[in-house]
């Protein structure tokens, strides 16, 4: 493989010269044995690998508006005992079988209690457990704050523009009315007698 000196780089045609110079400077200062071309090729491979990983479908269990990614732990307390389950693939596994949250609650308590209140959840990488009802409330709040769909945003913008135009037209109409009243007040039939006498002089 032919190695080029970082001191006299030959930038590829598709790479901005400033970025290429910055890369050469970094390789020189870091003491890397890679040539700029090798570093670029490595970065491209890493970027493609990340894109493939990001494009891979995320496994997990969708519980209404709450998504439980694979590896999420669930538990509930009955007396002094904790009952645990885990999301494996696209299922919640409790006692070796796939269940829904309501089925798990029914198996533990034998009645139809509210699974949102009874279940506690810990997502992968987290240390703390959170009640499912709190998580659902948090998701609902985030959904309310989420940006509107393009169609809704356009409709809102159009309404705002229409309201602004109507307000502007109202102001113009008011200004015209005021100026008309001022003009009419200055016409002879509205003037006082001593004003007319002053005009004769």
List strands and helices in order, with pairings.
Elements: H1 17-30, H2 36-55, E1 60-63, E2 66-69, E3 73-78, E4 81-88, E5 91-94, E6 97-99, H3 101-109, H4 115-118, E7 120-122, E8 130-131, H5 132-145, H6 150-185, H7 193-200
Antiparallel strand pairs: 1-2, 3-4, 3-7, 4-5, 5-6, 7-8
Describe this structure in words.
The structure is a single chain. The chain is an alpha+beta fold. It has three domains: 1-56, no CATH class; 60-145; 150-190. It is 52% helix and 17% strand. It has seven helices and eight strands; from the N terminus they run ααββββββααββααα. The strands form two sheets. A six-stranded antiparallel sheet has the order 6-5-4-3-7-8. A two-stranded antiparallel ribbon has the order 1-2. A hairpin with a 2-residue loop joins strand 1 and strand 2. The longest helix has 36 residues, at 150-185. It is flat, with a radius of gyration of 36 Å.
Short précis:
By secondary structure, the protein is α+β, with helices and mostly antiparallel strands. Helix content is 52%, strand content 17%.
Uncertain segments are none
Series of secondary-structure elements, N-terminal to C-terminal: HHEEEEEEHHEEHHH
Main sheet overview: 6 strands, antiparallel
Q: Which structural class is indicated by helix and strand composition? A: alpha+beta
Helix content: 40-55%
Number of domains: 3
**Tertiary shape:** flat
Strand content: 15-25%
Key features of this structure:
3 domains; flat; 201 residues; alpha+beta; two-stranded antiparallel sheet; 6-stranded antiparallel β-sheet
């Amino acid at each position: 493989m032919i190695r080029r000196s970082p001191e006299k780089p030959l930038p590829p045609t598709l790479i901005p010269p400033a970025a290429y110079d910055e890369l050469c400077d970094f390789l020189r200062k870091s003491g890397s044995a890679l040539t700029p071309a090798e570093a670029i090729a490595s970065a491209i491979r890493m970027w493609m690998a990340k894109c493939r990983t990001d494009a891979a479908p995320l496994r997990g269990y969708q519980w209404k508006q709450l998504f439980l990614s694979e590896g999420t732990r669930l538990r509930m307390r009955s007396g002094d005992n904790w009952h645990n389950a885990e999301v494996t693939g696209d299922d919640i596994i409790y006692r070796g079988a796939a269940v829904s949250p309501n089925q798990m609650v029914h198996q533990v308590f034998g009645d139809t209690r509210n699974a949102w209140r009874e279940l506690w959840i810990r997502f992968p990488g987290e240390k703390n457990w959170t009640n499912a009802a709190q998580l659902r409330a948090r998701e609902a709040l985030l959904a309310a704050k989420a940006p509107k769909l393009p169609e809704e945003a356009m409709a809102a913008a159009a309404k705002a523009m229409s309201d602004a135009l109507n307000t502007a037209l109202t102001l113009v109409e008011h200004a015209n009315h005021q100026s008309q009243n001022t003009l009419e007040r200055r016409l002879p039939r509205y003037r006082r007698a001593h004003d007319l006498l002053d005009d004769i002089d």
